[in-house]
Amino acid sequence: MAAPNDEERAVGPRCHHGSTAMLDVPFQPFCAFLGTLGLLCVAMTGTWCQHWRGGFSLDGGSRTFNWHPVLMVMGLVVLYGAAALVYRIPNTWSGPKLPWKVLHSSLALGAFVLTVLGLAAVFRFHNSHGTPNMYSLHSWMGLGTVLLFSCQWAAGFGAFLLPWAPTWLRALYKPIHVFFGSTILMLSVASCVSGINEKLFFSLKNGTTEYKLLPAEAVFANTLGLLILIFGVLVVGALARPSWKRPDSDSPDSRQ
């Protein structure tokens, strides 16, 4: 077989580069879509609790419980996902990193505060009704996720924001921080989806159309669960995409 000539060798890489470029999705449109999806998840959670579950209150009754899913989806999924994607914004690839570190940690802290408020709502509801706490798989997974989240935030603050943290410690902890960032997000999604399913099983029984008959509330809440799952998968996919990662400051192609 004859060896390819210079023209054929030149065309091959160009075709490969063109096909790769066609598959590359710009970050900004993706981020806009993801933000819209996140807002839709929060809006649907609020609509579910308002329309089918009676609305919101702070009296310790069932309407107090309704703050739990809204705050958890808003904090543990959407706001946490936004915090995770801060370093994928191309504007963060040049100039000082400190402002972006502060933004990343502030968004994560805001997510943590909303999550704690969501936990307070469900514990208050359980205690006022004499319902045991921490007996279901959903509750175990959710509380474990929150505890892991708190450790992640504290360790990240100590390693990356405190000025006296040594460089070797930051280099050692960075891949661990990145790994648990994605892990916590997927655990958050799993906790939310299992919580939606558990709530439907508890609510759609006596005096209502049973869950197995798929009433309108079940269709709406199941759709919400799928959208939350899609949101989490897209965030993890964005974190894993090589072309959207911040260049290493020691690499030749770094813009910093």
TrEMBL record:
Q: Where in the cell is it found?
A: Late endosome membrane; Lysosome membrane
Please provide, in alphabetical order, the Gene Ontology terms of the cellular component aspect for this entry: late endosome membrane; lysosomal membrane
Single GO term (MF): transmembrane ascorbate ferrireductase activity
Transmembrane spans: 27-49, 70-90, 102-125, 137-164, 176-197, 218-240
- Is Cell inner membrane found in the keyword set? no
Q: What is this entry's stated membrane topology?
A: Multi-pass membrane protein
Q: Where is the Cytochrome b561 domain?
A: 33-240
According to its UniProt record, the EC number is 7.2.1.3
Q: Principal localization?
A: membrane
| Top-level division of the source organism's lineage | Eukaryota
Keywords, comma-separated and alphabetical: Electron transport, Endosome, Glycoprotein, Heme, Iron, Lysosome, Membrane, Metal-binding, Oxidoreductase, Translocase, Transmembrane, Transmembrane helix, Transport
Which co-factors does it depend on? heme b
Which of the seven top EC classes does this enzyme belong to? translocase
Q: Which Pfam families match?
A: Cytochrom_B561 (PF03188)
Write out the catalysed reaction.
Answer: Fe(3+)(out) + L-ascorbate(in) = monodehydro-L-ascorbate radical(in) + Fe(2+)(out) + H(+)
Q: How does it assemble?
A: Homodimer.
Say what the protein does. Transmembrane reductase that uses ascorbate as an electron donor in the cytoplasm and transfers electrons across membranes to reduce iron cations Fe(3+) into Fe(2+) in the lumen of the late endosome and lysosome. Reduced iron can then be extruded from the late endosome and lysosome to the cytoplasm by divalent metal-specific transporters. It is therefore most probably involved in endosomal and lysosomal cellular iron homeostasis.
Name of the protein this chain belongs to: Lysosomal membrane ascorbate-dependent ferrireductase CYB561A3
